[in-house]
Design goal:
Strand content of chain A: 15-25%
Structural class of chain A: alpha/beta
CATH superfamily of the largest domain in chain A: Response regulator
Distance between the termini of chain B: 63 Å
CATH superfamily of the largest domain in chain B: Histidine kinase-like ATPase, C-terminal domain
CATH topology of the largest domain in chain A: Rossmann fold
Number of helices of chain A: 11
Helix content of chain A: 40-55%
Number of domains of chain A: 2
Strand content of chain B: 15-25%
Number of strands of chain B: 19
Structural class of chain B: alpha+beta
Oligomer: heterodimer
Chain lengths: ~325, ~600
């Protein structure tokens, strides 16, 4: 009897070992992987499309994506807290669109130190410890702006650049890109560079002022949506639509409406869907140790009145968001 | 310590299992391998039938899900066709000039059907004749630039579904719609006129229907139109951005049905369906391994069951073979001992399987028999020996008798009548006790008397060459003793001891009790025995001419035969000083008869 008991116990222990071995030795299943996507702002046109991209990746790879973001794009501490929470939750990876180039660095590096891969999308941070970056190459986007300006307006023009925040990485980079093109043509005259602080009203005011000072302005090169809309409003108020060209950035409904009314010449749009999708995909690759490019430019596309309804552009320009 | 022994034992038993050729290893190996093969076969059969089944189920369920989705899509498309038909059926009201009636009907339809965004009627010039809802038109839109307008105008009476696009009829309203356009030809009194009717359905409905389809975790469906243009794809933007490929051409050229292929080592199953009359194709892409996810779980389960079962079988077969071979092994051990001549083994406990029980029983019986035979032989041998000795002791050396009788005659001739009578009496007593009715056992007092008779005769014959003393405590006289123990010793003492010395000989005989033993002591002051001779003293038979025929060896053997190995003769001797002989026998009450 005793002997039977011993045999039975041994067999059970063996079985237990086998089971535990077989379950622990297998790699983490996709369905057990949790990725936190932290963006700048929730329920906003641009970020809603990023969300779509992130969920497309979630569905494709069968993982779990949690999509969060502060209510406002100025809520830096709110976003830092969200990263902290993600670290506490021991998520498998973080996809982050940093509100601030510098202030998000410590918490993002803390996540890295905790062994959590971090992939930055849209807006980078000042750290080389991140696993990757997916977003618009802003210098490149600036160049696209400059090139399409030259293509539409020629090389003998007087221009004004309407940037958004002096010192912000993205605005500096876009400016740099535009200037690369401007500097190639000696007859392009940069009258001034304005900073609107991402405020439409300031942009409008500055536009009207510069138009009074420099009526010879041929074109405004606007580096984000606020600058574009504000400048367009200023030009309209001045009654100078048609006389002054506006080269804009992004595609808010108001911008689209100006585009259709020929007030805006063209806009350069980004690809937020790709940011969301590739951000999550690369985070998953980082978890699994699959190599992926450290930096991906999701590109910038020139949208004009003519091509805005093309099938491949429609979704960029009119993202449908529930 | 105990543990180590146990470990050792375990080790031994393990090494025994793997001692190739042993019953245990044969049973263990054959049983384990047969069961292993059986289990593997069962596992493989189970697995293949299960996975085939699961795969069929998966494809079946994919088709089923897609059919459901297709029906939903067709419902939406059919409803658009119905509305389009409504327009056509009410066109007569249009020709009669009362456009309001049609407008009312369509507004009502729009109210009921939330999924319909707008319904519009164009003239073939592109001007809008009527539109619900009644909103401000966007003048930027030029209908005859639009695909849906061009196709409908070119193919009157055909239902033409557009790809999803942004509808821009109205100012600042940019819904995603699928447009059904149809060219209508009306006969007016003044001639034929062409119209184009459009029904715009909110695309989010179609998207909802398609995106909610779950083909496993990662599977998806997409819809293309007859030209391979994407109606719906969950990752349309990635395809446009060049981040993703979809083999639309293949789907377009393939027949309705399903096929599967391996891409990057993953089995992908594609199901293609036509959506109603729209010319659309619905393509379902599913990952077989994932849909048949149970297959992997089942896989693991089988492996675990196999391993657990295997462990069980190995243990069970080890145990079983141990159970079978252990009694045989015990038997083997026992036989080894007997082989070495040790018959004093205990009977083996009869246990184990029936055959082994039988074997053990037979073995025990055999040992019993052998043991019986052996003891029989021993007792026979003993009896034989005893008889021999008995015959020997009954023998009186004729020389002794002649010499004694010669002495008697000689004394008679010398008129020594006293001597004659004493010697004759002694001789008579000697014989009487020697014979003593054939009994082996006599009383100690008789044995002493026997010794005295002998001494008396010898003393007369040797003319008082020696003296002797007898010391027998009265309480010992009643114990019994083997007869004729003292006489051969005394004889030795006389012939080999004191006969050869110049001085007067002296023989002291005593009986004493030492616990449970009775000890006769015969002490002489004779020549003594060298230690060389002493060693072999019990080996040689007495051959002396003078001997009464019973030597030391005989005495010793007789004692041992009767009383066991604990008793016998011991000799202390020192050359030139004398010899002391101890005869040790057990104390036994005499049965005086």
């Amino acid at each position: 009897m005793n002997k039977w008991m011993k045999t039975l116990t041994a067999a059970l222990i063996l079985a237990g070992l086998l089971v535990s071995c077989s379950s622990s030795s297998s790699v983490k299943l996709n369905e057990d992987i949790n990725i936190k996507v932290i963006v700048k702002k929730q329920n906003h046109d641009f970020w809603a499309v990023v969300e779509q991209g992130a969920y497309a990746a979630e569905k494709e790879f069968g993982i779990n994506v949690d999509y969060v973001g502060p209510a406002s794009e100025e809520d830096i501490s709110g976003q830092i807290r969200m990263v902290e929470v993600a670290i506490e939750e021991k998520v498998d990876a973080i996809v982050l669109a940093a509100i601030d180039y510098n202030l998000l660095v410590p918490v993002a590096e803390k996540a890295r130190a905790a062994g959590i891969p971090v992939v930055i999308i849209d807006s980078n941070i000042k750290s080389d410890k991140m696993n990757g970056f997916v977003g618009t190459d802003n210098v490149d986007a600036g160049k696209v702006l400059g090139e399409s300006m030259v293509a539409v307006l020629g090389t003998d023009i007087d221009i004004v650049i309407v940037s958004f925040v002096k010192g912000a990485a993205s605005s500096n980079e876009r400016e740099e890109g535009v200037m690369k093109i401007v500097n190639q043509h000696e007859n392009i005259n940069l009258i001034d560079t304005l900073y609107c602080n991402s405020d439409e009203d300031i942009a409008k005011r500055l536009t009207k002022e510069i138009l009074e000072k420099h009526p010879e302005v041929d074109a405004f090169i606007c580096l984000n949506a606020y600058a574009t809309v504000g400048t367009a409003r200023g030009v309209i108020e001045k009654g100078m639509e048609g006389e002054v060209s506006i080269i804009g950035f992004d595609s808010t409904p108001e911008e689209i409406s100006y585009l259709e009314k020929d007030i805006i010449e063209l806009v350069v749009v980004q690809n937020p869907f790709s940011m969301g999708y590739l951000g999550v995909k690369h985070a998953l690759d980082a978890i699994k140790g699959i190599p992926f490019p450290r930096s991906v430019n999701t590109g910038a596309v020139v949208i004009t009145k003519e091509n805005m309804y093309d099938p491949e552009n429609q979704k960029l320009v009119f993202p449908f968001v529930d | 310590m105990g543990k180590r022994i146990k470990n050792n034992k375990t080790l031994q038993s393990i090494s025994r299992i793997f001692r190739f050729g042993s019953i245990q290893s044969v049973i263990t190996l054959s049983f384990a391998s047969i069961s292993m093969i059986a289990m593997l076969l069962i596992g493989i059969v189970f697995y293949s039938s299960f996975s085939e089944n699961a795969r069929n189920n998966a494809t079946g369920s994919t088709t089923q899900i897609m059919n459901q989705t297709r029906l939903n899509l067709e419902y939406y498309l059919d409803s658009m066709i119905e509305i389009s038909n409504t327009i056509e059926h009410n066109m007569d009201s249009f020709t009669s000039g009362s456009i309001e009636r049609l407008e009312d009907i369509l507004s009502l339809t729009l109210d009921i059907r939330e999924d319909i965004e707008s319904i519009t009627l164009y003239a073939d010039t592109g001007s809008i004749l009527m539109s619900v809802p009644d909103l401000k038109f966007d003048t930027n839109m030029v209908p005859y630039d639009q695909d849906w307008f061009i196709f409908a105008a070119a193919n009157p009476f055909e239902y033409i579904f557009s790809t999803p696009h942004v509808q821009r009829i109205y100012q600042d309203i940019r819904p995603w719609v699928v447009t059904l356009s149809r060219g209508v030809v009306l006969d007016f009194p003044e001639g034929r006129r062409n119209y184009i009717s459009t029904v715009d359905m909110n695309f989010s409905r179609i998207e909802e229907v398609c995106s909610q389809v779950a083909l496993g975790h990662r599977g998806y469906i997409y819809v293309i139109d007859g030209n391979g243009k994407i109606i719906y794809h969950p990752q349309q933007q990635l395809i446009y951005a060049g981040l993703r490929d979809e083999d639309i051409q293949k789907a377009l050229s393939s027949e309705t049905g399903s096929y599967s292929e391996k891409i990057n080592g993953e089995e992908i199953s594609t199901v293609i369906m036509d959506v109603g009359t729209s010319g659309w194709k619905m393509v379902g892409v599913s990952y077989v391994d994932e849909i048949v996810r149970n297959r992997r779980n089942f896989n693991n389960l089988i492996v675990v069951i196999l391993l657990v079962g295997l462990a069980f079988i190995v243990l069970a077969s080890v145990f079983m073979s141990y159970k079978i071979s252990q009694p045989i092994l015990r038997l083997e051990n026992q036989m080894n001992r007997i082989e070495k001549g040790d018959f004093n083994v205990d009977n083996l406990e009869v246990r184990g399987e029936d055959e082994v029980k039988q074997l053990t029983r037979s073995f025990n019986l055999m040992i019993e028999r052998i043991r019986g035979l052996m003891s029989q032989i021993i007792s026979e041998q003993e009896a034989k020996r005893k008889n021999e000795l008995k015959a020997l002791q009954a023998q009186i050396n004729p020389h002794f008798l002649y010499n004694t009788l010669d002495s008697i005659i000689w004394m008679n001739e010398n008129k020594n009548h006293e001597g004659v009578s004493a010697m004759t009496a002694a001789l008579a007593k000697l014989f009487r006790i020697s014979i003593s009715k054939g009994n082996e056992i006599i009383l100690v007092s008789e044995e002493i008397e026997h010794a005295i008779s002998y001494l008396t005769i010898q003393k007369m014959r040797y003319k008082n060459k020696f003296v002797y003393t007898i010391d027998m405590p009265e309480e010992l006289s009643g114990f019994s003793t083997l007869k004729l123990l003292l006489q051969p010793i005394i004889e030795n003492a006389i012939y080999h001891g004191i006969n050869n010395i110049p001085d007067e000989g002296k023989i002291d005989i005593s009986v004493s009790r030492e616990e449970d033993a009775l000890v006769y002591k015969v002490c002489d002051n004779g020549y003594g025995i060298t230690s060389d001779k002493l060693k072999n003293i019990f080996m040689k038979e007495s051959t002396s001419r003078h001997s009464s025929g019973v030597g030391l060896k005989n005495v010793n053997e007789r004692i041992k035969l009767y009383y066991g190995q604990d008793y016998g003769i011991e000799i202390d001797s020192e050359p030139e000083v004398g010899t002391t002989v101890y005869i040790k026998i057990p104390v036994t009450e005499g049965n005086n008869e």
